[in-house]
Amino acid sequence: MKITIIGTGYVGLVTGACLAEFGHHVTCMDKDGQKISSLLDGKIPIYEPGLPELVRKNVSEGRLTFTTELADSVQRAAAVFIAVGTPTSRRGDGYADLTYIYAAARELAPYLTGYTVIIDKSTVPVGTARQVARLIREENPTANFDVVSNPEFLREGAAINDFMHPDRIVIGSESEAAQVVMKEIYDPLYLISTPFVFTGLESAELIKYAANAFLSIKISFINEMANLCEVLGADVVDLAKAIGLDGRIGGKFLHPGPGFGGSCFPKDTMALLRIAQENGVPARSVAAAVETNAAQKAGMVKKIREALGGEVAGKTIGVLGLTFKPETDDLRDAPALSILPPLHEKGARIQAHDPQGMAEAKRIFPECCYVNNVYEAATGADALILMTEWNQYRAIDLDRIKSLMRVPLFIDLRNVYSPARMRAAGFDYVGVGRM
């Protein structure tokens, strides 16, 4: 099948490469000429394990192409995915900004020839698919098309595996013809018995928000339990393991830390809150998760300050990890960007390392000193903070780290290390929800 993807950001590029791997002929279209030129030169604009190899393979085998030309790519396609950004509105009200979605709908409409399925892949509020259909009809009243909502559930750092081996495929549609096309697109997944959920447009649009909100609630819940553990002298790692073994709860997303970040959870929880409020339905659990997450990030500043004796001025703080999670270069709403600037403003010198995030961090937080490795981050430090649990931080040479630090204070915001082990190695150890 000939497929066009509008938007070559994270979702669009991963979707395009994976659908090409399925055997479809995929054209990824983007207005950004520089981005398309880079892709044509084999340069991938994002860090995602396995993606460069998948793109190169499918380009070389002729199934994946890149272009800035919308007309030709839409005219030849049986299915067009809209995978453009839906950031939080710049108005600061929490609503999703649908400017790019609606622009794509208007711009593709004149080039529809023959029956075409238009697929909303971006995360969008309930009602967006109907608005996309309305805009297309306004621009091209004779167009023969259907709009489908097909939300993505890709985790940064594991997106290729998530696409190739998903928990489910959600397809929101009111058209049997569109469902036939969608089944053909995802036929390789149907053959391996992937669950398909066929539903209406509104349900499909809400499913993505509900899923991310629920996971956000789990994270905020375990962070609240971690804070309670610290007061009561309990261990949140033991608590999380025990409750996670309950099949009704499950152990995923029960890992305490400095709060959630990234491109999805903060944006999607706020958007869901606005949808609920707009329709007069309280979403108190989601609101509480958002509030708890903000408080958790602020609480980490207090935790670090207290570990340093109540004063950070003149102190050198080493930091391991800046991205919101490992295996990504994404710093959007990363806890580090809420925690480190207040410490710097109070007079601390920050020296940080991250395997993939430093280029973007330098742009956002230029006041920080960026170093080449773990050991440079520890050199002369009054405290070393493990902020992001990259694998390369899980087996550092503790004796060497201790010899390089001015004060052997290790603040583990991801609970990677055992308190007993760290104290046996001569460190003052501070975790999250652990004594």
Primary descriptors:
single chain; 435 residues; alpha/beta; Rossmann fold; 2 domains; 6-stranded parallel β-sheet; 18 helices
Q: Strand portion, in percent? A: 5-15%
Shape: elongated
Task: Classify the helix fraction into a percent range.
Answer: 40-55%
**What summary fits the major beta sheet?**
6 strands, parallel
Number of helices: 18
Radius of gyration: 24 Å
Task: Provide a descriptive summary of the structure in words.
There is one protein chain. With about 425 residues, the chain is an alpha/beta fold. It has two domains: about 200 residues, NAD(P)-binding Rossmann-like Domain (Rossmann fold, 3-Layer(aba) Sandwich); about 220 residues, Rossmann fold. About 45% of the residues lie in helices and about 15% in strands. It contains 18 helices and 14 strands. The strands form three sheets. A six-stranded parallel β-sheet has the order 3-2-1-4-5-6, sandwiched between helices. It has a six-stranded parallel β-sheet with strand order 11-10-9-12-13-14. Helix 15 links the parallel strand 10 and strand 11. The protein is elongated.
